[in-house]
Amino acid sequence: MKVSWSHCVLKVRDIEAMVQFYCDTMGWVVSDRGPMGPPGAPDIVFLTGSSSDHHQMALVATRGDEEATSLDHNAFRVESLSDVLAMHGKLTADPRVEGILPLTHGNAISVYFKDPEGNGIEMFCDTPWHVKQPAGLVWDPSLSEEELLAWVEDQYRDDSEFRPMDEYRADRAKAFGEN
To answer: Which residue, 28, 92, 97, 158, has most beta carbons within 10 Å?
Structure first.
């Protein structure tokens, strides 16, 4: 299984100041933003400087004054859905691992978990679709790969921005002047 680093999520105190900082200093743009749940839930802002990545960093307005660190989690991409399913099985068999959460964002199928020291990790593979973020649904690990992909497509098909990922990336490449 090939694993590559993808993005991080930082907990911040002043989300607008942090968005402005990363856009100004890194030249990044906001690719999506919104509440992480029902009304009143904290906002999350997705930032990128690349057409190939929906986000390279996300900022979430949940950092308390007493928190020494701002890291919520590091995310790692794997090559296939079978890798995600294998990782889920491996994690559930490991007594050192806590907080296992199979979650799909529509554009990815992930398993979130905590390492033995409580550090957040996301392992995911991309799906063929773009879905407006934030989005998240718990998925059933007993589904086959085909069933899981069909279920994800069915859950997000009516999303206002649902479309093939290749179309989304082509539009982002134009916006970044990469064509």
So the answer is: 28
Which CATH number fits the domain 3-175, given the four candidates 2.170.190.11, 2.40.128.490, 3.40.50.12780, 3.10.180.10? 3.10.180.10
Rounded-to-integer distance, Cα 141 and Cα 118, Å: 23
List the one residue out of 97, 85, 179 whose CA is nearest residue 141: 85
Q: How far apart are CA 140 and CA 159, in angstroms?
A: 21
Could you report the per-residue pLDDT of 137-149, keeping only the tens digit for each?
999 999 999 999 9
Spatial separation of the C-alpha atoms in residues 95 and 151, rounded to whole Å: 29
Token digits of residue 147 = 């069933």
Segment 19-44, tens digit of pLDDT: 998 888 778 899 999 998 888 999 99
Nearest of 166, 82, 81, 158 to residue 126 by alpha carbon: 81
The CB-side HSE value for 52 (13 A sphere, CA atoms) comes to: 3
Query: Whose CA is closest to 85, among 111, 59, 121?
Result: 111
